[in-house]
Amino acid sequence: MEQNTLLQIAKDFGSPVYVYDAEKITSQYKRLTSAFSKVKKLKINYAVKALSNLSVLKLFNTLGSGLDTVSIQEVKLGLAAGFEPKQIIFTPNGVSLKEIEDVAKLGVQINIDNLSILEQFGTKYPKIPVCVRINPHVMAGGNTNISVGHIDSKFGISIHQIPHILRIVENTKMNINGIHMHTGSDILDIDVFLYASEILFDTAKSFKNLEFIDFGSGFKVPYKAGDIETNIEELGEKLTKRFNDFCKEYGKQLTLAFEPGKFLVSEAGVFLAKVNVVKQTTSTVFAQIDSGFNHLIRPMLYGSQHEIINISNPNGRERFYSVVGYICETDTFANNRRINEISEDDILCFKNAGAYCFTMASNYNSRYRPAEVLWYKDKAHLIRKRETFEDILKNQVEIQF
């Protein structure tokens, strides 16, 4: 996706617009499978919550991926994209027993993360295999909102509650066919990940009928030139050896599973927005774009850094800008950032916009959610239309006064 290509996409499909590179998604998937090529049974379950467009899911299906889902709606999206139920794992948090029952009827692998639901489900459906999500009490992740394996996390069943799990299994005669963990996103130190993995291996010894161990994900991607990222190749080498050794100890060849989202799609996506106004104040030059946190909330929610390039003037002299949106609250994408000189109507390109960007978009201020485009085989394909005013009104019910 050259800059001229992106400019043409903005012209053809309007702005703001999300654009995803199918080739980058494919190369990231192959990079991960290559890193773990010495594992006899490897399962990559793409995390749908990162980017749930149906066409993107279909692309993952062609790559041989499975799906990691967190809602019955994501499960149904996966089925609509052509995935077999056995290719999908359902890992919700805090949902009702009914939702889990409804998903189980679809034939999807169930993953349960609390004792109450585990006991209720096991009592009613002892013959349905269940995975258990363990909280290893290992702090990992680049932000408290995305660190989910620590002791105060709402996710998973504490490793200190393993005796409770075993009691439930014994009483209900249910079948535990997998164990799972997820420590958090933006993991920098693979030794922390490997330490948590040892906890999972130790836990696995308590369950005799396992078919797979799911190590979650959270691999960090680079957000700018020279940025730190998870060393997937080193992790692959070290975890593969440990996993293969464990399978020998366990007496059975298990499947090693991951559930990456950001790693697979973040770098593949860009967000294009047009500059409405360049506003000079007493101390700041604002570049105000035709978007806001209704379309891209991560900088405001997580303090995430998205590299911003002026693709309309890539060779212009650099100046300092604060890039802000049009929402009637503070929505700052970048503060005092060096960017090639910006003029009104220029197109700015936000990098790393493939994961947790469109999926977190909203209609705040009654704005339309943007279009999505997939760059596939050197051609731009519209994969989601821009919303219209009719979409805003669609589900509203008027009453007479």
Notes on the protein architecture:
The chain has 401 residues and is an alpha/beta fold. 30% of the residues lie in helices and 23% in strands. The chain has two domains: 36-261, TIM Barrel; 269-393, Beta Barrel (Lyase, Ornithine Decarboxylase, Chain A, domain 1), CATH 2.40.37.10. The protein has twelve helices and 18 strands. Strands 1, 11, 12, 13, 14, 15, 16, 17 and 18 form a nine-stranded mixed β-sheet that branches. The N and C termini lie far apart (53 Å).
Defining key terms:
alpha/beta, globular, 401 residues, 9-stranded mixed beta sheet, 18 strands, 8-stranded parallel barrel, Lyase, Ornithine Decarboxylase, Chain A, domain 1
What is the beta-strand fraction? 15-25%
CATH architecture of the largest domain: Alpha-Beta Barrel
What is the count of structural domains? Answer: 2
Radius of gyration: 23 Å
The number of distinct β-strands equals: 18
Termini gap = 53 Å
Family: Belongs to the Orn/Lys/Arg decarboxylase class-II family. LysA subfamily.
GO molecular function: diaminopimelate decarboxylase activity
EC number: 4.1.1.20
Cofactor: pyridoxal 5'-phosphate
Summed up:
GO terms for molecular function: diaminopimelate decarboxylase activity. With 401 residues, the protein is of the alpha/beta class. The chain has helices at residues 3-13, 22-35, 54-63, 72-80, 97-105, 115-124, 162-172, 190-204, 232-250, 262-265, 298-302, 389-393; strands spanning 17-21, 42-47, 66-69, 88-90, 109-112, 130-135, 157-158, 176-180, 212-214, 255-258, 269-280, 285-289, 308-310, 318-324, 332-340, 347-350, 371-375, 380-384.
